[in-house]
Amino acid sequence: MNMEAKRSALVVGATGFIGTELVKLLCNSEEYGRVKMIVRRPGTYSHPKIEVLVRDFDKIMQEDIGEIQDVFCCLGTTIKKAGTREAFQKVDFEYPRTIAALAKKQMIEHFIMITAIGANKKSWSHYNRVKGMIESELIALDFPRLSILRPSLLTGNRDEFRLGEKVGEILLKMVNPLLVGSARKYRSISGEQVAYAMKVIALRSKEQKVTIYTSDEIAKFAPL
Questions:
Q1: Residues annotated as catalytic (active site), given as ranges
Q2: CA-CA 20 to 30 A from 56: which of 40, 130, 172, 178?
Q3: What is this structure's pTM?
Q4: Which residues pair with 154 in a beta bridge?
Q5: What is the predicted pLDDT for the residue at 1?
């Protein structure tokens, strides 16, 4: 396969928990010839396929998107880490909405976004409500193809230690085997599995315009 025939990808949130793993998978994939990253600070991973754009996310412009086929949005934080609800909403709603709108103008073929299992714009939970709000915005943009991944609690090695999530991770590992049937979607899943699923989903032939994947469906893609 020559370089011109290979796919090109843009990863936003490329230095985060899932984004870091996704970039490595895309760079090591024969199907991708170029992997573009928009980041607030440079990461430590380097590869000949990578093109890094260091940007203020409040000032991202049309030309920053470029000629890309697949956009992977891995942006996400927590209210605790962000400090305020407003700061959290900026990272999980405003930035993805801006990037998606620019991607739509750029006629991107496929937008792939991570939200969360409880995403619902009418939820009592601010976290889940914001996740639901961004899903609604993405659907309204009417991409040729939109894939939304709704993982449950994420497991794996993060850069920062989160006590609450670590406790939840331990508890869910014990509970996971008991979550069967419709409750399987609440099983915890590793960040590596989510990243792998994103790559596989991007390379699959189009099945429908909008597809939403829950944790149990995401886990089916990953041989981990």
A1: 127, 131
A2: 130
A3: 0.88
A4: 189
A5: 42
